[in-house]
Design goal:
single chain; mainly alpha; Fumarate Reductase Cytochrome B subunit
């Protein structure tokens, strides 16, 4: 068995299995947290509070809309995450891989031009967010080694993916796939888990705010 066959076969199965197992374990651990004692009587609608928190907080709160820093972070965050989402689920190589290994997708992949545009937007957002970790004194102070590792590993995975887009080089394809597998193994134990935990956090916070009849 060649190295590329190992990377795209057993190594992929191993890393994807660890990803699914430990992401599931982390989510179950979070959802299983129980409060002691009986909660106070609800003063408002918990469901309405949860839904409101999930939907409304996609944009900055009105007291902060005049802050350039807030809009910088918001726009950079949307650029990176939406661009990456398009690349993951709509790039031709990814669509073919997902349909071959996981499940058929109900949409057509984007064109090469669309891939380049999405990649540029995502790269721009990621670079802006990572630069902020050094420019903003507060963010620089609270940044942990994991934040840097997660950002740089994601950047390298994206970069090698763009380099392997043509699929003429087996080496580049194997390099990208190997880094993706490393990213999958690192994911559940890092800040990358916010991919799954942010909606839980918003829903729980909104649920508690709604119970107390607080407009959060």
């Amino acid at each position: 068995m060649s190295l590329i066959e190992l990377i795209e076969g057993p190594f992929w199965t191993f890393s994807a299995s660890l990803f699914v197992i430990f992401v599931f374990w982390r989510l179950v651990s979070i959802l299983d947290l129980r409060r002691r004692g009986a909660p106070p009587k609800p003063q408002g609608s918990r469901l309405a509070g949860a839904i409101r928190a999930l939907v409304v907080r996609f944009v900055p709160r009105s007291p902060f809309t005049r802050s350039g820093r807030v809009w910088f972070t918001t726009l950079a965050g949307y650029a990176f995450h939406l661009g990456l989402f398009v690349l993951l689920l709509a790039a031709v190589p990814h669509v073919e891989f997902i349909e071959k290994r996981i499940v058929a997708l109900p949409w057509e992949p984007i064109s090469r031009t669309g891939f380049i545009i999405a990649a540029e937007i995502s790269f721009l957002g990621l670079i802006m967010l990572y630069t902020r970790r050094f420019v903003d004194p507060l963010v620089r102070k609270i940044s942990r080694p994991d934040d840097h590792i997660a950002s740089l590993l994601t950047f390298i995975v994206m970069l090698t993916g763009c380099m392997a887009l043509g699929r003429q080089s087996v080496f580049l394809r194997g390099l990208h796939m190997g880094l993706v597998e490393l990213w999958l193994i690192y994911f559940p134990f890092s800040s990358l888990m916010h991919t799954f935990t942010w909606p839980i956090s918003r829903l729980v916070t909104g649920w508690e705010a709604g119970r107390r009849a607080v407009r959060w």
